[in-house]
Each structure stands twice: as structure tokens, then as C-alpha cells.
Amino acid sequence: VPKKTVTLVPTFKNKPAGISLSKDSYTVSPATIEVAAPKNVLSKLSDTLELAPVDFSQISTTQYAFNQGITLPTDCQNLSASSTAKVTLNNLANYTTKNLEVTNFTLTNIPTGTSAKILTEKLEVMAVGPEADLESMTGSNLIATVDLSGREGSIGTIPVQVSVAVSGSNRSWIYGNYTVNVVFSGTVFSGTASTG
After folding, report:
1. Minimal CA–CA distance to 6: which of 35, 29, 28?
2. pLDDT of res. 34
3. For the chain, which end, N or C, has fewer CB atoms within 10 Å of the first or last residue's CB respectively?
4. Residue 27 CB-half CA count within 13 A
5. Pairing assessment for the beta strands 48-50 and 3-9 based on DSSP bridges
6. What are phi and psi for residue 159, nearest 5 degrees?
7. End-to-end alpha-carbon separation of the chain, Å?
8. Which pLDDT band holds residue 190 (cuts at 50, 70, 90)?
9. Which residues neighbour 192 within 8 Å (Cβ) at sequence distance 6 or greater?
10. What pTM did the predictor assign?
11. CA 146 – CA 82 distance, rounded (Å)
């Protein structure tokens, strides 16, 4: 069966715009895998293969190594022992963390015919970034967005995931997953309600 050596390339999501990840800023282990496939499939196979993305919200100064899945196209066989590759970020010693309090919340995509209100007034989150950027950063630099897509018909108090963005530093991010309590109520109709 024809074989080919493919280089594994890490991918990232929610990466701050000011961070450029050059090849020396991470290591991938194994760096390559050997792939077997029919000749016509192999000839179309790229020399590089993207790994499942590492989400920046999971990266901190103490959490910087991730086992990411290796997914091959149909008809390709991974001849290496591993179905995952370890992506390690090398520069996190240059970063620091700071706990900040978010008080600025925005609701988006409120379902039609529903009123929604955030009950959580403040949320403590951890920012990660260069010391110079975090030094002057306060909670007012943070914007928390609560996306209510797909929440049609929700009634009562429900915890909803919040995404927290940093303004004023394009090299910092928020570590962790956070939720806020949102209270949903149906629309109040004027006039008499029909019973039955």
C-alpha cells in the first residue's frame, strides 16, 4: 500500500489578533505521522494535516499542553500508534494572569416574544496576557456577551454560557468557561387571557 509522511500542524480558535504563533512557539509530538492510502487518494493528500483546534479559553500559564485529535480523510489509514498529537505552547512563561470582575453584560439574539434579563451582576474571570497589558487592565476592559440563540420557549432562570472579550489589549484573553443566570419570561399580552 502506498505511504506518505504527513506533518501535523496545530490550529487555534479564539486566538487574540496580536498573538502570532510562529513554528518555534509550539511543539507537536509526534511531529509527523505515516499515512497509508490508495494511490489516487494519497496523491491528493496534502503534506500537512491540521489537528483539531486548541481553544485559547483553555490556555493559561499552567495549562498549555493539549492532546488534539488526528482526523484523516476517508480511505486513509494512520500507521502511527497515536490517534492524538500533543500540542505544547512554549512561551507561556512570558505571560501572567490577573483576576478581574466583569460587570458589563450584553444579551444578543433574544428570541422573539421573550423577555430576558441577566441576574448575575458581576463575574470574576481570569485574564491571561503579557504583564505590560494586564497591569493597567480593569474589569471595564471586559465585555461579556450572552448569546441566547436557540433559547426559544425558555421560561424561568437558566444558566447560559457567557463569552468574555478583552478590549484594549490584542494580546490577552480570558481563561475558562463561565455562565451567568438569565431569567426568561414570556411576553405579557394586554387584554383578557383566554382560559381553557
Report:
1. 35
2. 96
3. C
4. 7
5. parallel
6. -75, 130
7. 71
8. very low
9. none
10. 0.84
11. 38
CB 186 within 8 A of CB 113: yes
Indicate the pairing of strand 77-78 with strand 178-186.
unpaired
- Whether the predicted pLDDT of 195 surpasses 60: no
Query: Quick one: three-class SS letters along the chain?
Result: CCEEEEEEECCEECCCCCCCCCHHHEEEECCEEEEECCHHHHHHCCCEEECCCEEHHHCCCCCCEEEEECCCCCCCEECCCCCEEEEEECCHHHEEEEEEEECCEEEECCCCCEEEEECCCCEEEEEEEEHHHHHCCCHHHEEEEEECCCCCCCCEEEEEEEEEEECCCCCCEEECCEEEEEEEEECCCCCCCCCC
Q: In whole angstroms, what is the distance from residue 134 CA to residue 14 CA?
A: 18
Residue 152 phi/psi, 5° resolution? -55, 140
* 182, 187, 190, 194 alpha-carbon torsion, rounded to 10°: -120
Alpha-carbon distance of 135 to 145, in angstroms, equals 24
Query: Is 110 in contact with 184 (CB distance < 8 Å)?
Result: no
In whole angstroms, give the CA distance from residue 140 to residue 91: 27
Mean pLDDT score, 9-32: 94
125-171 pLDDT per residue, tens: 999 999 999 999 999 999 999 999 999 888 999 999 999 999 989 99
Grid cell digits, residue 167: 478590549
How far apart, in whole angstroms, are the C-alpha atoms of residue 148 and residue 189? 22
